[in-house]
Design brief:
Elements: H1 8-20, H2 33-57
Length: 79
């Protein structure tokens, strides 16, 4: 599954500028949100690839049906 590259240098510049401007560090609009999002998506993608590879080795039929955008709601986000 192709995933866009995370540009840490531009993230770092935006994070520092955001903190100086008074932006929150955490939360859905927080400074760390893009990095956490990239980390979680990479982790889930890797886990899915691992499970699919294991199923293929065990000659079990399993596959991905595609990729769609999803929104995860949490208690801390308020909705």
């Amino acid at each position: 599954m192709a995933q866009e590259e995370f540009d840490f240098e531009s993230f770092k510049k935006e994070a520092i500028a955001g903190l100086y401007s008074g932006k929150k560090m955490t939360g859905t609009d927080g400074v760390l949100s893009p990095m956490v999002n990239h980390f979680l998506e990479s982790m889930m993608c890797g886990e899915l690839e691992y499970h699919l590879a294991q199923d293929k080795l065990n000659e079990q039929i399993n596959r991905k049906n595609g990729k769609t955008k999803k929104t995860v709601r949490s208690l801390s986000a308020g909705s």
